[in-house]
Amino acid sequence: MSKIAEFNEKLAAKITSGVATMWCAYAFAIIALISLPSALKSGSVLVIVSWLAQTFLQLVLLSIIMVGQNVGSKSVEQKINETHAASLGEFELAKEARKFAQMELAELKEIASDIHRVLRDIEGKAK
């Protein structure tokens, strides 16, 4: 990656993390409200609706939506971590169960071997 691309990515990440805060939303709301008296003074419904849609909502909602996305992604990340931890726990239980099953299988093989020996002994005595 070139130095310029690396710089651009770092700058974009800094700006994004700054804009994705409620403090930025408050600052944008204040900036937007500065032009509200002028929009109201015009008396034009079109100017007022335009101010509301293009100035206030776009400025303020941008930050609020980004904050909401961050909250949502943290929630998803927490669920992923919890699922991962639970999966690791299940894996450990499965390993223990397998170890126990292998021990039982070894015991069963030993018992089967003893039974075969006893049957051979009985068969040998019967002849």
Structure description:
This protein has 127 residues and is an all-alpha fold. The protein has one domain. Helices cover 94% and strands 0% of the residues. It has 4 helices and no strands. Helix 2 runs antiparallel to helix 4. The chain starts with a helix and ends with a helix.
Short description:
The chain has helices at residues 3-19, 22-34, 36-42, 45-126. The chain has 127 residues and is mainly alpha-helical. The chain has one domain.
Determine the structural class based on helices, strands and strand pairing.
Answer: mainly alpha
Mean pLDDT: 91
Taking all Cα atoms into account, the compactness measure Rg is 36 Å
| Count of the domains | 1
Spell out the helices and strands N to C.
Answer: HHHH
Which characteristics define this entry?
127 residues, mainly alpha, single chain
Question: How are the elements arranged and paired?
Answer:
Blueprint (H helix, E strand, L loop, with lengths): L2 H17 L2 H13 L1 H7 L2 H82 L1
Helix pairs in contact: 2-4
